[in-house]
């Protein structure tokens, strides 16, 4: 969440105001760069506080640095931004936005153009930039394209990818600051203006400059897009002061109506109770929908007169700014993820699925173990599921990190050698391997003690082979306990000859029980020590089941 930033700029009294109320008729007493007092005839001194207050002598550069520069920087980082100039007619909105051609008097818009292209020149060469400019005006509640005078009465559309946009508006691709300023000046010449008693060159429309900044990373092909709205609103008018009539009066009514709709939107957004926000009541509020309460960072520049002649309009503008300051926007980075990012997200999702799958397998194994089924085939299946689930869980957990594999592999090899599963085992201090698992891990390991090593051999070699399988210890010297386990495996695999079917089944079950009990001593202890070693190290590499060549990895 981000609050709308509100700044206030006071212009000096003009000749009309001085002639009407005198040169020393200022109603403003500035306390510091953020607060001031306004002298009202009815309420007395009213204190106001905003994000920044610019006095009559504040240079154009200071206004740009505080009002527009943070918004432009956000736009270069793919965060939408808006700068709104609001106030009474003749209060200095257009001067603040456009400025003049005199050195140091450039407004926000030409300074934005200069800053953008200076930023691009110093940016990392890995980024490729595309700069586009659109200019439209809202005149008499009709949207007109200032870059193409043949396009009139354009419509505001919305979709999931582009958000709010003006359908059919021209987009000019820019290559330099000079090209941008030339395009802007050509568009401003097409803007509707008129002369009133308050302003000899009064804007009769709301002007919206839209600068789209798209940057592509040439390495990972990710794309970021930021939109920058610079809005010069038409000023509110009092007919008794402007003396507008005819067409100018009709324009003034339409301007005041759209500004009233803007005030209604702000009131709805700052209302304590949830209520409907009337964005569609005006073309202006519809275009600014994302700027007010949406995906944007917004700064409102309230331009005011400090003289007593316009005290009522100034007070209305200041109260408008106070309401706008309470708006909460929801800016976010507008980026299209690269293929690499999507692949990483997919791997993360697959890992989470494997983790959940292993949990389901372990829960099923626990349920089977608690039911006490006597079917040896069912027990072997349960054991195989439990072992597979644990190995998958280890695979997912360990594939996310890359510790020193050589050290971890050596520890695991020593653990297997100590249990006699590899042969050529060496002396390993038990002090490093005899940590006791907690009770929950003990219950889990009891399920897995249905022979991790023998499950594959028993199920892959069904009864029917006449010869005794060779020992899987790789031809190395093995302890007597391991030799005994190999002999029992041979008894299980060797078919029983003669006798009835019941006798053969009884003999097979008895041999299977003996082999299972023997293998639990070795395989179960290996798993337990393996888990102890896993807890001692941050991670451990993925282990594969032993094959005939006793290869671990």
Characterise the protein shown here.
By secondary structure, the chain is of the alpha+beta class. Helix content is 44%, strand content 19%. The protein has helices at residues 15-21, 60-76, 93-97, 108-122, 177-188, 239-242, 247-269, 283-287, 311-324, 339-371, 376-399, 405-418, 439-448, 452-460, 480-493, 501-536; strands at residues 2-3, 5-11, 28-30, 35-40, 44-49, 52-54, 81-87, 127-139, 142-145, 155-159, 163-167, 172-174, 193-194, 202-203, 206-217, 223-232, 297-305, 328-329, 335-336. Strands 2, 6, 7, 8, 9, 12, 15, 16, 17 and 19 form a ten-stranded mixed beta sheet that branches. It has a three-stranded antiparallel beta sheet with strand order 3-4-5, with helices on one face. Strands 1-18 form a two-stranded antiparallel sheet. A hairpin with a 3-residue loop joins strand 10 (155-159) and strand 11 (163-167). Helix 10 runs antiparallel to helix 11 and helix 12 packs across helix 16.
Beta content comes to: 15-25%
Unreliable segments (pLDDT under 50, ≥5 consecutive)? Answer: 418-454, 462-505, 511-553
Global morphology: globular
Number of helices: 16
How many β-strands, per DSSP? 19
Structural class: alpha+beta
For the terminal residues, how far apart are their CA atoms?
A: 51 Å
Percentage of residues assigned to helices: 40-55%
In quaternary terms, these chains amount to single chain
Alpha carbon gyration radius: 39 Å
Main pleated sheet: 10 strands, mixed
Chain-averaged pLDDT: 75
């Amino acid at each position: 969440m981000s609050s709308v930033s509100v700044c206030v700029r006071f212009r000096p009294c003009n000749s009309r105001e001085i002639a009407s109320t005198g040169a020393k008729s200022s109603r403003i007493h500035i306390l510091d760069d953020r607060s001031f007092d306004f002298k009202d005839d009815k309420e007395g001194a009213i204190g106001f506080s905003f994000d920044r207050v610019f006095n009559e002598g504040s240079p154009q550069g200071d206004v740009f640095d505080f009002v527009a520069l943070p918004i432009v920087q956000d736009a270069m980082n793919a965060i939408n931004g808006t700068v709104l100039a609001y106030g009474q007619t003749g209060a200095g909105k257009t001067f603040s936005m456009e400025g003049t051609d005199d050195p140091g008097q450039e407004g926000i818009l030409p300074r934005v153009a200069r800053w953008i292209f200076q930023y691009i020149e110093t940016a990392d060469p890995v980024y490729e930039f595309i700069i586009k400019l659109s200019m439209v005006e809202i005149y008499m509640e009709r949207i007109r394209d200032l870059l193409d005078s043949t396009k009139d009465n354009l419509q505001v559309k919305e979709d999931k990818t582009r958000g709010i946009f003006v359908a059919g508006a021209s987009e000019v691709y820019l290559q330099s600051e000079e090209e941008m300023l030339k395009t802007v000046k050509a568009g401003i010449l097409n803007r509707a203006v008129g002369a009133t008693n308050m302003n000899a060159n009064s804007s009769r429309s709301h002007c919206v400059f839209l600068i789209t900044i798209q940057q592509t990373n040439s390495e990972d092909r990710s794309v970021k897009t930021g939109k920058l709205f610079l809005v010069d609103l038409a000023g509110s008018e009092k007919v008794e002061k402007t003396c507008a009539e005819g067409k100018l009066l009709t324009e003034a009514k339409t301007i005041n109506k759209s500004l009233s709709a803007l005030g209604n939107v702000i009131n709805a957004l700052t209302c304590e109770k949830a209520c409907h926000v009337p964005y569609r009541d005006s073309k202006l509020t519809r275009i600014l929908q994302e700027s007010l309460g949406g995906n944007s960072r917004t700064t409102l520049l309230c331009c005011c007169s400090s003289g007593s002649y316009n005290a009522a309009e100034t007070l209305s503008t200041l109260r408008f700014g106070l309401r706008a300051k309470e708006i909460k926007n929801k800016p976010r980075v507008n980026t299209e993820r690269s293929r690499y990012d999507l692949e990483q997200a997919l791997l993360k999702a697959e890992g989470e699925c494997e983790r959940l799958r292993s949990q389901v397998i372990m829960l099923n194994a626990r349920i089977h173990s608690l039911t006490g089924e006597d079917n040896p085939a069912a027990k072997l299946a349960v054991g195989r599921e439990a072992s597979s689930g644990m190995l998958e869980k280890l695979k997912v957990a360990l594939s996310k990190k890359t510790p020193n594999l050589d050290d971890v592999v050596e520890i695991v090899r020593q653990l297997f050698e100590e249990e006699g599963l590899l042969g050529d085992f060496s002396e390993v201090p038990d002090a490093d391997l005899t940590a006791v698992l907690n009770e929950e891990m003990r219950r889990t390991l009891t399920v897995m003690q249905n022979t991790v090593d023998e499950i594959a051999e028993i199920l892959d070699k069904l009864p029917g082979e006449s010869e005794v399988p060779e020992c899987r210890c790789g031809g190395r010297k093995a302890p007597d306990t391991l030799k005994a386990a190999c002999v029992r495996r041979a008894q299980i695999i060797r078919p029983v000859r003669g006798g009835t079917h019941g006798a053969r089944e009884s003999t097979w079950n008895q041999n299977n029980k003996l082999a299972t009990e023997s293998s639990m001593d070795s395989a179960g202890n290996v798993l337990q020590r393996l888990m102890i070693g896993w807890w001692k190290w941050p991670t451990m590499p993925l282990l594969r089941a032993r094959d005939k060549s006793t290869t671990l990895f």
